[in-house]
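Each field is set out as follows.
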Amino acid sequence: MSTADATRTTVDAFFAARADGDTAAITALFADEVDWLLAENPVVPWIRPRRTAAECAAQFDELMAHVVPEDARASIDTYLVDGTDAVVFGHLSGTVRATGKSFEGPFALRLTVEDGRITRHHLYENSVSIAEACTR
C-alpha cells in the first residue's frame, strides 16, 4: 500500500468514526501527541487547545453536547491526499443548543497521518459565525 493510500485509509476511518459518534475509535486514530490547531474562541465551549489523543477525540463529544445533533451537518466538497497529508474542504452548519442560534460556513481541514495515526489536525472554519451563534 502506498503512503497516500495508507493516509486515505486512516482519514476515511476518522470520518466514519466521527459519523458514528465512536469516541473510542476516534481516540485510537489519533497519535499520543497531536499538533492540534483550531483558533481559540473563548465564547465557544468546544473550541480549546488540545494535545493528546483523548483530548482531541473529546472534541466531538463536547461539540455534540453543545449543538442540536439533528441540525449538525458537514459536507465534503474536495478531498486531496498527498503522501502523509490530507486536505479536506467543505461546509459545516449547526444550531447551538443554549441559544437556538445557527452557524454555517466553509471549512478546511489538514490532517497528517504517520504510522496509521493522525499526528496533525488543523481546522480552519468560520469562527465568527460560530461565536455569534454561541452568544446570547
Notes: The mean pLDDT is 94. Strands lie at 30-37, 73-82, 85-95, 102-114, 117-125. The helical segments are 3-20, 23-29, 53-66, 127-134.
